[in-house]
């Protein structure tokens, strides 16, 4: 097996709330998360708001620091890098956000936004820089003349293409995509997903694809990891995952089934399995004891005491319909 | 049955430095009490503009050029603002995508619902509070009385959306406009909110106008209107839309949303919707992107023709010229 480019071990993140020292409590956003990502591979991270998936992406992109754990990027201790070494390494890990408005400066021309990482991380300037900006715009399906315009002149889908051009500009090995298509209409969504697939084929980039859109995940992911209340509850190759998730939470996500209640607040987590208060198949043991991620055949892992075959429950109705 | 909401030949133009362009062009539909209608289509197609035109909340550059919006028989476009204002949030309730944008961050969620109650009925403070708590309960907010004094940020996204829905019910609406109410929510939560809105529609006989990108949700509505470049290009029942979208644009939209093949290109629609200035051209607005384009499409504008049980604005369904 090829060496993973990303190895995440025991990653935890606790946010400490304000207030008097005595009453201060830690809100656990991530708890002991481990996974690997191979070169050119796409690992999707699924989960609801508050599951910790955005925090995970921010930590992998070194935009937030974890409370515990280790990240190795091509074998190098990624969290130990600082100063100049970190700046140099940043070209290898880039991020694309849900809303390009947050990553593109509205005052800058599009060309300047894309040029910035090339200048800072690749040391390009002058005509070589302009030429590279033009190439990047073409590679995301835009006209090189777009460089002269500002973000407001573009549709949401086009702005996301620009944000992607900016992310791939320094030639990263890994791009963290945080809900890259959640704000887009179906057609723009399909275009952006296609673009991500194309870029991967062309450049061999790996994606950490964070999303709550299970259909988007189905169309891009090699493997799927599911986060619930800060814990990894399942991880599996995409084909197996979609054929039959093992964790009841994954099954509900996949079926788009309404679940009772909402995910627990990070300040007030339930005992045992964090999903048990909402789980349709919870038993007494689930409230008493936290299940660990257990390896199963086929390279999959699930954190459930009763990983019943969920495939039956996720069968979608209306097979004759164009729209699932 | 008489419609709660009837939109007739609505044409809205946008006045820009470069000229005046139609952004909604001859849009018509009826919505009966208890009926749901989805508005779908790409961004820029006119979905949100249509919802705003119904509420008479168009952006300053947009102007109604023709048509009528009948709410329980009254043309909203022909009444003075002082008669329109109480209908906003009154007979017409609405729910947005992001409740945080609509809720005042420094005031308790309960007081905001109570304020909506008082705006639409002459009730005292205590009465309004009781009514607000009842509405929050109806919207499924657990422990509504205890949460009454919480600020919006103390609530989860799903709970905030329930507060928004409670506020939308304060004026006892006959029409509810839901503009992407679940776009910011994750699947299990989105399903809860959709189920809630659907229950309220049935129990209260609400006419529901559901603006959405989510074609699966659209297919669950009684009726679906597909908007493209400011015109309705398909009008179908939810079931027919899901089974056999008729207009090539509706079919392409459905195909782009229904990705079933792992790690393969999705059937995206090539190109982009026409620029505003090009929409008036005498041709089908979808022709430049259409896989089934033929001679006539570039020469004149199609009407809405019967297509199975649906109607489609496409020459493929035009009756043979006599």
Polypeptide structure, described:
- The complex is a heterodimer of chains A (324) and B (322).
- By secondary structure, chain A is α/β, with parallel strands linked by helices.
- Chain A has 2 domains: 6-221, P-loop containing nucleotide triphosphate hydrolases (Rossmann fold); 245-321, no CATH class.
- Chain A contains 11 helices and 12 strands.
- In chain A, the strands form 2 sheets. Chain A has an 8-stranded mixed sheet, sandwiched between helices. In chain A, strands 2-1-4-5 form a 4-stranded antiparallel sheet, with helices on one face.
- In chain A, strand 9 and strand 10 (231-237) form a beta hairpin.
- Chain A is globular, with a radius of gyration of 21 Å.
- In chain A, 48% of the residues are buried.
- The model of chain A is unreliable at 310-320 (pLDDT under 50).
- Chain B has 322 residues and is of the alpha/beta class.
- In chain B, the strands form 2 sheets. Chain B has an 8-stranded mixed sheet with strand order 6-7-8-3-9-10-12-11.
- In chain B, helix 4 crosses helix 5, helix 4 (109-120) packs parallel to helix 7 (157-169) and helix 7 packs parallel to helix 8 (187-204).
- Chain B is globular and about 70 Å long.
- The interface between A and B is large, with 49 and 47 residues.
Q: Please give the order of strands in the largest beta sheet of chain A.
A: 6-7-8-3-9-10-12-11
Strand content of chain B: 15-25%
Q: How much helix is in the residues of chain B?
A: 25-40%
Number of helices of chain A: 11
Shape descriptor of chain A = globular
Number of strands of chain B: 12
Structural class of chain B: alpha/beta
Write the layout of secondary structure elements.
The complex is a heterodimer of chains A (324) and B (322).
Chain A: E1 6-16, E2 26-37, E3 42-46, H1 53-60, E4 68-73, E5 76-77, H2 83-89, E6 93-96, H3 110-122, H4 126-139, H5 156-168, E7 174-178, H6 186-203, E8 206-211, H7 214-220, E9 223-228, E10 231-237, H8 238-243, H9 248-255, H10 284-288, E11 294-296, E12 300-302, H11 311-314
Parallel strand pairs in A: 3-8, 3-9, 6-7, 7-8
Antiparallel strand pairs in A: 1-2, 1-4, 4-5, 9-10, 10-12, 11-12
Helix pairs in contact in A: 3-4, 3-5, 5-6
Chain B: E1 5-16, E2 19-31, E3 36-40, H1 47-54, E4 62-71, E5 74-75, H2 81-84, E6 92-95, H3 99-102, H4 109-120, H5 125-138, H6 144-147, H7 157-169, E7 175-179, H8 187-204, E8 207-211, H9 215-219, E9 223-228, E10 231-237, H10 238-243, H11 248-257, E11 305-307, E12 310-312
Parallel strand pairs in B: 3-8, 3-9, 6-7, 7-8
Antiparallel strand pairs in B: 1-2, 1-4, 4-5, 9-10, 10-12, 11-12
Helix pairs in contact in B: 4-5, 4-7, 5-7, 7-8
């Amino acid at each position: 097996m090829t060496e993973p480019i990303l190895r995440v071990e025991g990653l935890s993140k606790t946010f400490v709330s304000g207030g008097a020292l005595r009453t201060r409590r830690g809100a656990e956003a991530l708890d002991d998360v481990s996974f690997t990502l191979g070169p050119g591979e796409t690992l999707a991270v699924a989960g609801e708001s508050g599951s910790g998936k955005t925090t995970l992406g921010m930590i992998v992109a070194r935009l937030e620091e974890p409370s515990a754990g280790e990240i190795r990027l091509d074998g190098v201790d990624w969290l130990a890098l600082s100063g100049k070494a970190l700046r140099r390494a940043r070209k290898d890990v880039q991020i694309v956000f849900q809303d390009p408005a947050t990553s593109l400066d509205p005052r800058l021309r599009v060309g300047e936004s894309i040029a910035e990482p090339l200048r800072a991380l690749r040391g390009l300037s002058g005509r070589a820089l302009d030429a590279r900006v033009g190439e990047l715009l073409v590679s995301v399906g835009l006209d090189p003349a777009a460089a002269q315009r500002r973000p407001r002149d573009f549709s949401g889908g086009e702005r996301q293409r620009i944000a992607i051009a900016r992310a791939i500009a320094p030639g990263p090995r890994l791009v963290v995509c945080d809900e890259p298509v959640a704000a887009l209409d179906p057609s723009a969504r399909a275009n952006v997903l296609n673009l991500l697939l194309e870029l991967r084929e062309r450049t061999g980039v790996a994606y950490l694809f964070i999303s709550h859109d299970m259909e988007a995940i189905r169309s891009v992911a090699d493997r799927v990891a599911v986060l619930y209340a800060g814990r990894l509850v399942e991880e599996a190759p995409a084909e197996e995952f979609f054929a039959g998730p093992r964790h009841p939470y994954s099954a509900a996500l996949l079926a788009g089934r309404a679940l009772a209640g909402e995910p627990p607040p990070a300040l007030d987590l339930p005992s045992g399995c964090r999903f048990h208060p909402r789980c349709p198949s919870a038993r007494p043991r689930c409230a008493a004891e936290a299940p660990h991620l257990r390896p199963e055949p086929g390279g999959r892992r699930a954190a459930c005491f009763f990983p019943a075959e969920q495939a039956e429950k996720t069968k979608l109705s209306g097979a004759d319909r164009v729209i699932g | 049955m008489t419609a709660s909401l009837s939109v007739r030949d609505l044409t809205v133009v946008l006045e820009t430095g470069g000229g005046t362009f139609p952004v909604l062009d001859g849009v018509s539909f009826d919505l009966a009490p208890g009926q749901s209608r989805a508005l779908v289509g790409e961004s820029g197609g006119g979905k949100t503009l249509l919802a705003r035109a119904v509420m008479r909340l168009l952006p300053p550059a947009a102007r109604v050029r023709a048509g009528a919006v009948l709410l329980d028989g009254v043309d909203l476009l022909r009444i003075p603002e002082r008669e329109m204002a109480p209908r906003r949030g009154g007979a017409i309730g609405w729910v947005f995508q992001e409740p945080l944008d609509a809720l005042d961050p420094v005031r308790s969620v309960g007081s905001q619902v109570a304020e909506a109650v008082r705006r639409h009925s002459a009730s005292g403070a205590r009465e309004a509070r009781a009514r607000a708590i009842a509405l929050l309960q109806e919207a499924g907010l657990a422990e509504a009385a205890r949460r009454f004094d919480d600020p919006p940020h103390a609530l989860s996204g799903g709970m905030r959306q329930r507060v928004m829905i409670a506020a939308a019910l304060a004026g006892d609406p006959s029409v509810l406009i839901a503009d992407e109410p679940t776009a910011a929510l994750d699947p299990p939560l989105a399903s809860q909110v959709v189920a809630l809105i659907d229950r309220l529609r049935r129990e209260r006989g609400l006419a529901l106008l559901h603006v959405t990108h989510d074609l699966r949700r659209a297919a669950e509505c009684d009726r679906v209107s597909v908007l493209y470049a400011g015109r309705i290009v398909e009008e179908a029942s939810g079931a027919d839309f899901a089974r056999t979208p008729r207009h090539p644009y509706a079919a392409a939209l459905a195909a782009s949303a229904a990705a079933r093949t792992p790690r393969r290109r999705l059937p995206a629609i090539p190109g982009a919707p026409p620029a505003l200035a090009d929409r008036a051209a005498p041709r089908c607005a979808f022709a430049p992107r259409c896989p089934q384009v033929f001679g006539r499409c570039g020469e004149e504008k199609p009407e809405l023709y019967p297509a199975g049980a649906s109607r489609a604005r496409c020459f493929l369904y035009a009756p043979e010229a006599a």
